[in-house]
Amino acid sequence: MKLTTLPYSSLKICLGIVLCGFFGLTIAAVEVIDDRGKTISLSSPPQRIVSLLPSLTESICALGKCKHLVGVDRFSNWPLSLQNLPKLGGMSDSNLEAIVQLKPDLVVVDKSSSIISRLEDLRIPVMAFEIKTMADEERTLKKLDLALGSKESGRVWNQIQAEITRANKQLDGSQKNMRVYFEVNAAPYAAGRSSFIGELLTRLELHNIIPESLGPFPKINPEFVVQAKPQMIMLSETSLADMKKRPGWADIPAIKENRICAFKKEQSDVIVRPGPRMGEAALILSQCIAEKSLSSK
Amino acid sequence: MPKHQFSQKLMALLALSLMLIALGCVFGSTGIDWPFTEVDRTILYEIRLPRSIGAYLAGALLGLAGAIAQSLFRNPLADPYLLGSASGGLLGVGIILCLSSVGEHSLVTLIGINGGAFAGALLGVLAALLLAGGYKSSLRLLLSGVVIGVIFSAANSLLTFVRPDLYQSLQSFMLGNTSLITWNANLMMGLALVICILLTLLLSPVLSVLSLGENTARTLGLPLDQLRLLLIAVLALATGFAVAQTGLIAFVGLAAPHLVRHISGGRQRVQLILSSIAGGILLLGSDLLAKTIFAPLEIPVGIVTAVLGGSYLLFLLRRGQIGIRK
């Protein structure tokens, strides 16, 4: 008797499992492919998120999911409501123990971070992003939208675009086509045309002195800037004094006529992060250009 | 030294090692609660334990490599770091990282990185030896080792220039980093340590004979050149596998053999084993310091070993315990 019923019952169990599987699949919410090409499947929208990159932190908050962040990297400082969250180290020294202790159900991180494989070993879902251009940020917003179960990426992106258009309109014909040099860091690294900063400059119809061929953030020879004679220099406030002392730079038109945008720490944070505040960045840039060309007239 | 006295000291050192590993499990960014929660268990078994054992194994490999180098080249300052083999190993790691895709860390990549580090370490020592025209002059060997080290780290910087996305990973290798050691990495280092220790124990009579001087050794009819090359390969294997997991760790290989020299009483095998254990204790101890001094922040362990080992070396130099043949 038992011999005849056993296969039948196991068939029923199999059928049950298959049905449950189908049922489970319909519940299993989303699958997102991150910038490594890896598929991350999330059964429900993550409730405990750790972000290890400021621009990702800002994007998550712009999508309205700030309240689900439980920890951020050392440099994430916007919005201010994040101040009291645990800080989990920087790019090369993320604190693995502290991250695990927070029991995150999603960690978002830069693609080049060395902590990714370690987190995945510990079965913590990781989404890695590589954001170098404005299109990258649009894609990131969409993917985060999908993963977090928000429907805000369209609105956030449109707002960025509207702000950039507004920034463009603040500049008149004489200010547009100005030769501009944007210094990212005093090494000096410049913002090339293919970087998101370069794209902003293009959208403002400014002439970036760095040719397209040099890539997104080239390390340039200071001589190159002297030769290119920029009419406007943009850099962080902290490197302003040193820049003026560089040999031969005193003759650059921008320095001679004091058309220098030296950004404060908070402004620099907005401009150098490829996040949802790119529209605000465009406005900061255009405002400074408008002011500086007015005062030098 | 009587036999039982040696075994007592060995036991004491091993007990100290175990105690440090236990301490390594207790201290981290925060303490551990009792009873365990699920998260505490993960932190303990998947992060702190592999990290502590890994730091110990890497230290043991470096200590052994240092002891081999010092006996083989009859040079009290020989050390994987100063011989150029550590930088060679790092260059090997860098090249393999460049060739493989970032973020993917399968067992295959791990083996590739270890292999690359071994090849690089071997290349480093051989280049230093070639540049110095053999090891007859300690000073020339060390100088050429330093030069090779500088050239290799320059090559490494060039790699970060070519592949800026690798900057973060390579940077953590350059400063020495124990915080991301996995069980797989421990497996690699454990295997390497067993192989290296067995081979060096087998070859230790050669080292003893060599310490009597080149000519005496020749009269015994040993195939000296081949054996010496084999020992250099062991040295490179130990260095390479340590570097592949933890990056550049300065001075552990140099200090460990000196710390145990007076305990071992000049016996080659004892000296080799004890140097290895002392290396493990040194690196694990430094790792403990690195993660507790500014907890929950962490400083790279390479900085701690450089400060501690460097001061110990200066102390030895002042006391005149290190004589250098010009």
3D architecture notes:
The complex is a heterodimer of chains A (297) and B (326). Helices cover 43% and strands 15% of the residues of chain A. Chain A has 12 helices and 11 strands. In chain A, strands 7, 8, 9, 10 and 11 form a 5-stranded mixed sheet that branches. In chain A, strands 4-3-5-6 form a 4-stranded parallel sheet. In chain A, α5 runs antiparallel to α6 (153-169) and α6 runs parallel beside α12 (278-295). The radius of gyration of chain A is 25 Å and the shape is elongated. The relative contact order of chain A is 0.11. Residues 1-6 of chain A have low confidence and may be disordered. The radius of gyration of chain B is 19 Å and the shape is globular. Chain B has helices at 3-26, 38-72, 85-99, 107-132, 138-162, 167-175, 183-211, 214-219, 224-246, 252-264, 268-292, 301-319. Helix content of chain B is 76%, strand content 0%. In chain B, α3 (85-99) packs antiparallel against α4 (107-132) and α4 (107-132) crosses α9 (224-246). Chain B has 326 residues and is mostly helical. The interface between A and B is medium-sized, with 25 and 28 residues.
